[in-house]
Amino acid sequence: MGIEIRDFRDGDRDAVLELSLRAWEPVHASLRRVLGGRIYDRMIPDWRESQRTEVGGALDDADTAVRVAVRDGAVAGFYAVVIRPKDDTGEVTLLAVHPDHQRAGVGEALTRHAVDWIRGQGMGMAVVETGGDEGHAPARRTYEKAGLTELPVSRYFQAL
Q1: Which helix (H) or strand (E) holds 37?
Q2: What angle do CA 129, 133, 135 make, to 5 degrees?
Q3: Where does the N-acetyltransferase domain start and stop, copy by copy (predicted)?
Q4: What is the CATH number of the domain that holds 91?
């Protein structure tokens, strides 16, 4: 069965929140390994609650466009985009694919759809940010497959 990308509906909320937790669990494990427990725990004391709050906020924000990917009758992934007219950009602020649907083209389809939607809003550039750690490697591959160009950035932390 193919992938349908459509507008987010209120009835999708629980599925989107659940898939975001499942999708980002390995990412947070990777971040904890890279940063160490002391820094990670200061930054994100309860990642699940932070994730619910961030995703829920995007779902409720009238200025954020949210689309879901449906595959095999289930919500398989989603993206959230914010348009920034002053910068002539649209930013993909969130994108996640349920683990049961990863490596099936859902992430790339969502990314391409988001970029096309941003272009359709008259913006001259699409932007997405992700981590450089191993947990974010699948996201980097997905964005590169969809034609985005990476700008490596280093960010350093020290617990005090």
Answers
A1: helix 37-43
A2: 90
A3: 3-160
A4: 3.40.630.30
